[in-house]
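Translate sequence into structure tokens.
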Amino acid sequence: MKLSNSLKALITSLVFLVALMAGPARANEQLIALSKDSSQWVMPTGNYANHRYSELDQINTETVKDLRPVWTFSTGVLRGHEGGPLVIGDVMYFNTPFPNNVFALDLNNEGQVIWEYKPTQDPTVIPVMCCDTVNRGVSYADDKIFQYQADTTLVALDAKTGKEVWKVVNGDPAAGATGTSAPMVVKDKVIVGISGGEFGVRGHITAYYIADGSLAWRGYSMGPDSDTLIEPGVTTDMGKPVGAASGIDTWEGDQWKIGGGTTWGWYSYDPDLNLMYYGSGNPSTWNPTQRPGDNRWSMTIWARDVDTGAVKWVYQMTPHDEWDYDGINEMILADIKVQGEDRQALVHFDRNGFGYTLDRVTGELLVAEKFDPAVNWATHIDMETGRPQVVDQYSTQYNGADVNSQNICPAALGSKDQQPASFSPKSGMFYVPTNHVCMDYEPFEVSYTAGQPYIGATLSMFPAGRVTGDGTNNLGNFIAWDAGEGKIKWSKSEQFSVWSGALATAGDVVFYGTLEGYLKAVDAATGDELYRFKTPSGIIGNVNTYMHDGKQYIAVLSGLGGWAGIGFAAGLEGDTEGLGAVGAYRSIGSFSRLGGVLTVFAL
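Result follows.
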């Protein structure tokens, strides 16, 4: 039975009212209820499972050709717009790159500004922001909008007025710590990570109470068990109990104190298991010869109890990282068949080029396969130990410092960076925006000084076709992935890396943006392009959808930047600048320029 628009609106209002009455202690129940209302988009990732999927089907394979932009809004800010809008009732909320202005727009009046929040931040934070001044969006719960700012200030705003309710500082920019990620609200807590691995910041994940911003718990990526919240003998790794001092014993001396493993990606949550999942990033420095050992727990998938922060299981994907393959990409939770068996799965497309499928209850490794055929730094993942089998030719540790290791695939920005994939429960497929880029990598000795870059490597990047010799020159692909088998179902070549987040819908259409600025729609089953529209600037934001007054809309922020666009965002010229990205992406300037625009589409 199809519901009338008025009845849908009444149901939505009742759900919204019940959620508001539930109180902050039940924020996840509020968000679960609201996220099931496909007319809204209440979390940056769509739902706690990070599906980035919508049940809306007014825009489908037959009608998408009639999609048109219906209104736009200039953010007034340049640099990379890496987030996406929320839609709560009749209001749209989103933020900008530094200085992280927040907007509330009236959907009844084509984006008229209800309020704008303009934080005061010291611009000295900009030089310690790796890979552009991006921010990945705001979050909502308990009639509050939560923003995590560049200077690590977490602020709660009144959703109706934009007034500050409380704010708290999560790190020290003077030591290189910054904030770029979207917060996640669970129960009575709002959870944030930290950026700054390139400055020797020790990574952590922190939960604050949404009522007043007071600290609930903090778990570090490395350090003593009291810091990591790993419980020896209880926490497991590859099904085996983790021993004492695991966050220290693979580091030399006190290196763990400046060990990296930052947590600037996306977070997911399973309400039934009461576990949150996320990844930690690269160890510091990028010169592997300066930090012998596995450098645990950098490059790790974590499963933590959201009430206490206690760690149930860990899995380190890239022990002793030699390539900057941060493990921060999103964890997608999906109940799927894995090699014919029903599983409560966690699916992760890592920077290192392997697509991982794990049992999210136990941490058991089920599938680990390359999702870009160009990947060459390792032959495979040993399914017994979970360790990658590294090829000496592409090992910067084996080749040594001051040696330029050539033709390593993928490049440091990975076969996929933070740009989130989507999962369609309807098709059972994962839709993944990818990079098809390789690199030369030369480590060198570097010393640590608080607040100064702690990198220790020179990189240059180029299309993977230069290594594979297949005659191609593309820097990206958009793929459909079978996570149960670890296989690419189809792949669509793109001139540049696909740096936007994907959106899958019940209309059998998948949306994504390109660095040239195109919003594209493809057939979920085949990858055939069904629609494109060029927005004013390159798209590195995440495509979202919502329903308003009986009409489905698509919304996306355009604004060239991020690591791939850092040359244009920051005015860099040298091929090895931007941590190696500038040379590979120099030709973007022939297709796009800086900008900051929200574009809203409808049939």
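Note: Confidence is low (pLDDT under 50) at residues 1-25.
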